Amino acid sequence: MTSLRSLAVEILVRVERDRAFAAPLLAAREGSLAPRDRPLLRTIVRSVLRNRSLLDHVLSRSLDRPLEGLDPDVRNALRAGAAQLLLLDRIPAHAAVGETVEAIRERSARAAGLVNAVLRRLTREGKPPRAILPPGTDPIVRLALETSHPEWLVRRWIADLGSEAAGAALRDDDADAPVDVLLDPRGEDVDSVLERLRGEGLEGTPSPWAPLALTLSSPAAGSHPAIASGRLAVVDVAAQAMCELVEAADVVVDLAAAPGGKTRTLLARSKARRVVALERNPTRSRRLAAGLLASGRRNEVLVVRADSSRPPLPRGAFRSVLLDAPCSGTGTLRKNPEIRWRLSPDDLPGLARVQCALLHAALDVCAPGGSVVYVTCSLEPEENEGVVAAVLSARADAAVERPGGDGLPAPLRSALRPDGFFRVPPGPSNDGFSAVVLRKGGESR
Ligand SMILES: C[S@@+](CC[C@H](N)C(=O)[O-])C[C@H]1O[C@@H](n2cnc3c(N)ncnc32)[C@H](O)[C@@H]1O
Q1: What is the rounded CA–CA span in Å between residue 307 and residue 281?
Q2: Peptide bond into 208 cis (omega under 30)
Q3: Where does 180-229 sit in CATH, by number?
Q4: Which segments of the chain belong to CATH 1.10.940.10?
Q5: Domain 237-440 classified CATH 3.40.190.10?
Q6: Ligand 1 pocket member 311 (CB < 6 A)
Q7: How many CA atoms lie within 13 A of 134 on its CB side?
Q8: pLDDT, tens digit, for every residue of 247-269?
Q9: Are 423 and 348 in contact (CB under 8 A)?
Q10: Do residues 370 and 364 touch, judged by C-beta distance below 8 A?
């Protein structure tokens, strides 16, 4: 049987080497462990991914060769061991060292010697203070290391959000995200839905972010049958809030729809009688259709597998269009901490090119007088303001609309900037997003 530490190292190697995402790997592989061991596996993997540069800094001081030069197995065993010793209080040092060394011994006896020596040294030295850099260190370098984010991202967030909000967002990326669900009352009142869920053992708190958002009291509730079956959708509270910007219409087009959180929110909020949901990826498109089926909403959605930069839809025909564009995901580092270590600023222009093509297509299918809501879960201006500026400079038929705040949930209202963009930094209760409403010029409004 695979040991917990061995599985942790295997997952960390796949994340680093193959650019895999940890969450689906954990979901797929943790079944090979006894149920009592699964939370610790998740904790070790997330702790390494969230604290990687801090752990690497500490480990480098105990190594006589560069950490980057070691085998990925060895490097990640060291990180997993250091995380247990330095960050996870409840694991006794002898178990953290002994079991991590055994996990790597299965692969190489020589490597086990190195891991043993380094982890024992860390045990002897005790926990390093969080502030481990000398006085006088550049505050951005310090913040980047202490919060384990790449320096380039820290610089950008300080420039865009200001020091205080950026510091809070960086720290909030380390919080375990609660599970938020979308209530879908269909004519029932929300209190009755909450009552029924309580009867099924699902307790939660209504969120100020969105009228149908419920934050569950226990993250373990994520495996409740109502959620596992797809009847109840897990949708981040800020993702639900973005749908408040979408104009109600008989038919709403959702140009990047899978896995379907926003499609389902639009229907639950009666923003549309029907949604045309486009998705290019076949696996994700099947997942979208399956989720809609499980929710009982399948008949209200036309799922189309297509490239939305050339959508098979009539031009100028839809009054309300949502484009939740593929993006860098820098607003979702709580849930996907590995993004910090694989994204580079050089990736942003390529993402922006794709986003520009999709936004042109969204404006093309939008009817004169209608609106396009452009959303990303990125905080980077290149993927948001930059995309919109580039698209609008190439066409004269659309403009940014600054929505009146009335009727919008308070946290969303306070994210509205003078230029009409909403910038929501990640917080303890929400993912980070950016959004803007574009109005298509013309008569039929
Ligand atoms: C940010 S996700 C959408 C999340 C979704 N709106 C939700 O709330 O669940 C972006 C989606 O766009 C899809 N996508 C990327 N490029 C696309 C394209 N050219 N045409 C259609 N879909 C695309 C991706 O596969 C991904 O599922």
Answers
A1: 9
A2: no
A3: 3.30.70
A4: 4-125
A5: no
A6: no
A7: 1
A8: 999 999 999 999 999 999 999 99
A9: no
A10: no
Expressed in angstroms and rounded, the spacing between residue 264 Cα and the centre of ligand 1 is 14
| Residue 309 beta carbon below 6 angstroms from any ligand 1 atom | yes
If one residue of 236, 242, 262, 281 were mutated to test the ligand 1 pocket, choosing by the most ligand atoms within 8 A of its CB, it would be 281
Do residues 77 and 103 make contact, with C-beta atoms less than 8 angstroms apart? yes
**Secondary structure of residue 249 in the 3-state scheme:** strand
In a mutational test of the pocket of ligand 1, which residue from 234, 245, 280, 304 has the highest number of ligand atoms less than 8 Å from its CB? 280
| Annotation says 327 is catalytic | no
Apex 257 CA angle, 424 and 315, nearest 5: 105
Which pTM value belongs to this model?
0.94
**Residue 255, token pair as written in the block:** 């140009």
281 CA distance to ligand 1 middle (Å): 8
Q: Which residue has the tokens 């260190």?
A: 137
Domain 4-125: which CATH class? mainly alpha
* Distance separating alpha carbons of residues 91 and 94, to the nearest angstrom: 8
Tokens of 107: 């692969």
Q: pLDDT tens digits for 395-420?
A: 999 999 998 878 899 999 999 999 99
| C-alpha closest to that of 51 among 85, 24, 2 | 85
What burial class does residue 326 get, using C-beta atoms within 10 Å of its C-beta: 0-12 exposed, 13-18 middle, 19+ buried?
A: middle
Q: How many CA atoms lie within 13 A of 417 on its CB side?
A: 15
Q: Give the SS3 label for residue 234.
A: strand
